Structure to design on (69 residues):
């Protein structure tokens, strides 16, 4: 597992899953000449991000808006 939040789906996934996810994103970025990365940045502008791992809070397992502790 990678370092990061213990409540984040992306931080706690297996390494091979993250590798293939990153490979797919790289192919998408190269295929669209980086336009897809700009679109993702714009889409994430208004979202709440985790202060620990900087992933969107929607990817975190929370109970009542708070991290599962």
């Amino acid at each position: 597992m990678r370092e990061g939040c213990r409540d984040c789906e992306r931080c706690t996934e297996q390494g091979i899953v993250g590798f293939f996810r990153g490979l797919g994103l790289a192919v998408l970025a190269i295929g669209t000449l980086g336009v897809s990365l700009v679109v993702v940045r714009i889409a994430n502008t208004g979202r709440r991000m985790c202060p620990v791992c900087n992933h969107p809070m929607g990817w975190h397992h929370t109970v009542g808006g708070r991290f599962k502790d």
